[in-house]
Amino acid sequence: MFTSSLGKKYLMALTGLVLIGFVFVHMAGNLQILLGQQYINAYAHALQSLPLPILWASRLFLLICVIVHAWTAYALIVENRRARPDANKIERTKRAGLSSLRMGVTGSILLSFIIFHLLHFTIRVVYPQYGELMTLVGSSDENPIHDVYSMVIAGFQHTVISVFYVVAMFLLCSHLAHGVSSVFQSLGLRSESWRPTLDIFAKAYAWVIFSGFSVVPLAVLGQKFEIISIFEPNLFSAALALHQ
Questions:
Q1: Are 16 and 189 within 8 A, CB to CB?
Q2: Is the pLDDT assigned to residue 90 strictly greater than 60?
Q3: Domains of the chain, with CATH numbers?
Q4: Dist. CA 171–CA 209, nearest whole Å
Q5: For residue 12, which of 29, 72, 99, 191 is within the disulfide window of CB 3.0 to 4.6 Å?
Q6: Percentage, residues of the chain above pLDDT 70
Q7: Is the pLDDT of residue 133 over 90?
């Protein structure tokens, strides 16, 4: 079933639906850094303290969804090109729209971003010293926990990295603006009568995700260049000095 074009569309839609929900939950969790060190550290510690079978099963499930989503998207692009190798470019552009044509490109860049993000903040091989950041703030007992608050500030102090994150989130916004609506179409749940409403919702959702993920790196840069002051000054200065 899933080797057919229709089966691939269903797989891409279902895995896309999982990822659409995940980015919202992930964004909401990340925004707790704006509430203060205690909130984001407690949230991150709660996630990292989940039973290992649940934690790794969740990670594996998300990884499978990303791989399947990327594979089905690539397979469908190849099938479409083979089916219409000499199709009129103008006609194809009118049918698919600019956002649809860029889905493969933005998806590829986002896949590269996901790998970097995992290496940067999750596995912490880009800056191994992030793993040594510990604090009691946010801990429910006397044992120190990982200081995610300082890690994020230190990570986004690099202007190039912060700009890369914001650009990647803009591409994610572009991907979601088309993808959210396409999920319902692929599952046969989108009718022409409510297509305009769904398209508006997709664009609004995409911009919410872009804003939610971009505000933190932009806030760090704003405080670094003394434009705004959101984060705790002493902790911010200590995080900035981590790479010096």
A1: no
A2: no
A3: 5-243 (1.20.1300)
A4: 11
A5: 72
A6: 90
A7: yes
Residue 93 has pLDDT above 60, yes or no: no
Three-state secondary structure readout of the chain: CCCCHHHHHHHHHHHHHHHHHHHHHHHHHHHHHHHCHHHHHHHHHHHHCCCHHHHHHHHHHHHHHHHHHHHHHHHHHHHHHHHCCCCCHHHHHHHHHHHHHCHHHHHHHHHHHHHHHHHHHHCCCCCHHHHHCEECCCCCCCCCEECHHHHHHHHHCCHHHHHHHHHHHHHHHHHHHHHHHHHHHHCCCCCCCCHHHHHHHHHHHHHHHHHHHHHHHHHHHHHHCCCCCCCCHHHHHHHHHHHC
- Which amino acid, residue 127? Y
pTM for this structure?
A: 0.87
Give the list of residues 6+ apart from residue 235 with CB closer than 8 angstroms, or none: 37, 149, 150, 153
Mind listing the pLDDT tens digit for each residue in 190-224? 777 788 888 899 999 999 999 999 999 999 999 99
The torsion angles phi and psi of 138, rounded to 5 degrees, stand at 100, -10
